[in-house]
Amino acid sequence: MSDPIEFWFDFSSPYAYIAAQRIEAVAEKHGRTVAWRPFLLGVAFRETDGRPLTHFPLKGPYSAHDMARTAREHGIDFALPEPFPVNSMVAARVFYWLNDRDPDQALAFAKAVYRAYFADGRNIGEPAVVLEIAVEQGLDPDDLKAAAEDPAVKEKLKQATAEAVQEKGVFGAPFMIVDGEPFWGADRIDVVDRWLETGGW
Amino acid sequence: MSDPIEFWFDFSSPYAYIAAQRIEAVAEKHGRTVAWRPFLLGVAFRETDGRPLTHFPLKGPYSAHDMARTAREHGIDFALPEPFPVNSMVAARVFYWLNDRDPDQALAFAKAVYRAYFADGRNIGEPAVVLEIAVEQGLDPDDLKAAAEDPAVKEKLKQATAEAVQEKGVFGAPFMIVDGEPFWGADRIDVVDRWLETGGW
C-alpha cells in the first residue's frame, strides 16, 4: 500500500478549498488515499514574509478573478467571502480532535467547514459558527466546546503547523506532498495527476 | 481575424521562459497569433511589493525545484542561471527596436536571448552579451549599439512597461491576455488552451 498524499491546507485559503474539491478523485484514480492536514497559514507567512493574495495591489483583484474562474471551470460553488481571510484556528483544532476519533467524520467536518465559508459565506472565523457546523454534522456541542479548549488539541495543531513549516517546507496552501515530492497550488492538482500516472519525471 | 494573444514577459523570468516555449503552439492550434511584449518586471514589483521568487524563504527552494520539474515535463532545456535575476533592460530595448523593423527577426532574437540565459547560462544582464547574441542572429553591431542608446527606443520600453503595469494590471511574468481575459503564470498556458477551445466559461 502506497503512502497517502499529504494535503496541507488552511480553512481560510480559497485555492485550498478549490483543491479540496478535487484531490480525492485524483488520489482514488491512482489507488491512493489523502491525509488531510490543516495548518495555520498565517504562521507560515511569518516565516516567508507572505500575506493573503488578495492583499497585494494588482495581484489582489487578479487573484479574486482567477479563483472564481478556476472554481467555475471545475463546477465548484464559490464566492469570495467577507470577511476574508479569517482565523481558522478553531476549525483546525476541531478537525484534529475529530480525526483522532473518526477520520471519516473529520473529513466530513472539513468539507462542511469549507462549504460554509466559500459557498455559503458563513464566518468560520467565529468559534460559534464552527461549533454550529460541527453540531449540524451530528456532534455533541459540549464535547466540542471542551475539545476546542483542550491543551492537548491546541498542542496538536501547533505541532502540525510546525511540522508543515519547519520540517516539510510548506509555505502556502494548498500544498501537496506525494512520495516526498512537493506541489504548491491548486493548479498543481493536474500535475500531481500526471506525476502519479507516469511515476514522475 | 481575432486579436493576437498578448504575451507579457521579462527576459529574466524563468517561468516566462518556460511559457515562451509553449505559447506559440497553443496560439496556432486556435488560429491565433502572439504579440510578444517584453516589459521590466522590476518596475511591476515596485508597485506590488514583489520580488524574485527565489528570494523568498522556503518558497525560493521550492520554486527552483518546480521550475526545473516543469521544464523537464515539457522537454525544455533549463538550468537556473547564476547570476539570477539580471537586468533585462538592454535585451528588451533591442527587442522593441527590432520589432519595428522585422517582427520575425525580433521573435528569433527573443528566443535566442532566452536560450542563452536559461539553457546556456550566458549573462544576458551584460549589454555586451546581448549584443553578441544579436550579432549571432545576423544583426549589425553598429546599428545595435546605436539602437540600445536611442532615446526613442528607451521610451518605447518605458511606455510598454507603463502599459503593462498601469493599464493592463500586469504584476508578474508570464502574463497572457486573451480577448481581455488575464492569465498569470506558466501554469495558466493549459488554461489559455482550454479557454480558446471552449470560448471561455
At a glance:
The structure is a homodimer of 201-residue chains. With 201 residues, chain A is α+β, with helices and mostly antiparallel strands. The first copy, chain A, has helices at 14-20, 23-29, 41-48, 59-73, 89-101, 103-118, 127-136, 141-149, 151-167, 189-198, and strands at residues 5-9, 34-38, 175-178, 181-184.
Outline of chain A: globular
- Beta fraction of chain A: 5-15%
Secondary structure: number of strands of chain A: 4
Sheet with most strands of chain A? 4 strands, mixed
Structure notes:
Two copies of one chain form a homodimer. The first copy, chain A, has 201 residues and is of the alpha+beta class. In chain A, strands 2-1-3-4 form a four-stranded mixed beta sheet, with helices on both faces. Chain A has helices at 14-20, 23-29, 41-48, 59-73, 89-101, 103-118, 127-136, 141-149, 151-167, 189-198; strands at residues 5-9, 34-38, 175-178, 181-184. In chain A, helix 5 (89-101) packs antiparallel against helix 6 (103-118) and helix 5 (89-101) crosses helix 9 (151-167). Helices cover 56% and strands 9% of the residues of chain A. The longest helix of chain A is centred in the last third of the chain and has 17 residues, at 151-167. Chain A has ten helices and four strands; from the N terminus they run E-H-H-E-H-H-H-H-H-H-H-E-E-H. The interface between A and B is medium-sized, with 30 and 30 residues.
